Write the structure tokens for this entry.
Amino acid sequence: RASMFNHHDAFRTSSWHAHIGGVKTWHICHPDQSEYLYRIGDINVFDPDYEKFPKFHEAVCYEDHLQEGEIVFYPSDYWHQTLIESDITITFTSAVVDRYNYKQFQGVLEMECAQEDGFGSNFEDMTCTELQICFDVWD
């Protein structure tokens, strides 16, 4: 079965996922559980190695089997991992930038434009110039 590794979204956006077909299991943890989740990708929450990651036993998280027609939403910085439970799954998804997380999102984009500790997006200068217009409007 296919799975996405345990992580929180790099651009610090919120996200929603509308499940169109198949079954997908979601494991979602509040950011305050980070100390029990170690680093991005360290733990497979669906088959954890408790000897290697003993603090994971203490994590308080949520798990749900998303069915056709259901939607899941999580705010920025929430940890999540998915597991595909059927032969085919179809999900429509979108990242959300709103009044609660736009400053975090802006900070990540500014780091990308400055090429400081970013994710290697290699934004063009024109993109960064245009983003500055957005930042001015947001403030």
Observations:
- The CA atoms of residues 65 and 133 lie 41 Å apart.
